[in-house]
Amino acid sequence: MRQDEQAALRELHGDYAQLLWRFAMRLVHDRAQAQDVVQETLLRAWQHPEVLTREPAALRAWLFTVARNLVIDEWRSARHRHEFGTDQLPETPADDATERVLDAWLVGDAMESLSADHREVIRLAYYGGRDTASIAAELDIPEGTVKSRLHYGLRALRLALEERGVSGR
Known about the structure:
Elements lengths: L2 H26 L2 H17 L8 H21 L1 H5 L15 H15 L3 H12 L4 H8 L3 H21 L6
Helix pairs in contact: 1-2, 1-3, 2-3, 6-8, 7-8
Family: Belongs to the sigma-70 factor family. ECF subfamily.
Organism: Arthrobacter stackebrandtii
Keywords: DNA-binding, Sigma factor, Transcription, Transcription regulation
């Protein structure tokens, strides 16, 4: 770009940017969009340097017509018709509970195949969140027995789940 063109564009910006912005704000009521309209209008003036040689009244009319047409084009665009701003976040999709329900049913069915002793220590440890000492105290059995029942009960549970088509790991 030549020096004289740069100077003309700076002068154009200085003379018309604020006026165009106020004009665009009255049309769009959005600061960012008004600024975009001004930038695009001045860009089009830069792309058509012959416009810069017009009389001031004709240049002003051309700039305001371009700005108005940009706003109208935006209003007519599909983006404007189908998109809208909101202060609320979109709904977050809820997790599909089907998978969890089926897993719970499968584990419950497999748990039924265990002995009552194994089922009880697994329930207290994994569903109750209890440690071996509290399980031993509640069931009035030694801690080693609790550990043994947990070990063999989990092995039997894994085997029962594999028989039902659940793969290990």
